[in-house]
TrEMBL record:
<dbReference type="InterPro" id="IPR050680">
    <property type="entry name" value="YpeA/RimI_acetyltransf"/>
</dbReference>
<dbReference type="InterPro" id="IPR016181">
    <property type="entry name" value="Acyl_CoA_acyltransferase"/>
</dbReference>
<dbReference type="Pfam" id="PF00583">
    <property type="entry name" value="Acetyltransf_1"/>
</dbReference>
<feature type="domain" description="N-acetyltransferase">
    <location>
        <begin position="1"/>
        <end position="150"/>
    </location>
</feature>
<protein>
    <submittedName>
        <fullName>Acetyltransferase (GNAT) family protein</fullName>
    </submittedName>
</protein>
<dbReference type="GO" id="GO:0016747">
    <property type="term" value="F:acyltransferase activity, transferring groups other than amino-acyl groups"/>
</dbReference>
<keyword id="KW-0012">Acyltransferase</keyword>
<keyword id="KW-0808">Transferase</keyword>
<dbReference type="InterPro" id="IPR000182">
    <property type="entry name" value="GNAT_dom"/>
</dbReference>
Length: 150
């Protein structure tokens, strides 16, 4: 298995393979135009000046899992941090350590790029995901997240 960052100059086929995988996650939100939204986000991510990154786990030309993240600047950390928007593994390949390998790759990448921390959000009742994050040294932060959509 190969874990790597999708390059900014990725071809259309690679972009579509990432979108196809992430449709599994998007289906849960029930949007009719989810594929178009995914492709738009992936294309924006892969523009030259984007602060977003996509890492994938691939085996025999099949993308099994993906992580989508953004870099931000944190006042309390005094530098860049990662906001891990999404971490998704295809349901047929779960419980094989793929998510952990993706996270370890991101942690290694972050350490080598001077990133000060990683933040993310997961469901309160998602015990398996919480156990994964805790096993890698992530800790609970009590907060209430708000959103606004245009």
């Amino acid at each position: 298995m190969k874990i790597y960052e999708i390059p900014k100059d990725a071809d259309q086929q690679t972009r579509e393979k990432v979108a196809d995988l992430l449709m599994g996650q998007m289906e849960s939100i029930g949007k009719d135009n989810a594929y178009e939204l995914l492709m738009e986000a992936i294309n924006l991510t892969l523009t030259e000046n984007s602060c977003a990154h996509i890492f994938v786990a691939e085996y025999e030309n099949t993308i099994l899992g993906a992580a989508f993240l953004n870099l931000g600047i944190s006042l309390d950390k005094g530098g860049y941090y990662i906001w891990l928007n999404d971490l998704y593994v295809h349901k047929e390949y779960r419980n094989q350590g793929i998510a952990k390998k993706l996270l370890l790759k991101i942690i290694y990448w972050a350490e080598n790029h001077g990133i000060k921390g990683i933040e993310l959000e997961t469901g309160i009742s998602n015990a398996a995901t919480k156990a994964l994050y805790n096993s890698l040294g992530f800790y609970d932060v009590v907060s209430k997240r708000y959103g606004f959509r245009f």
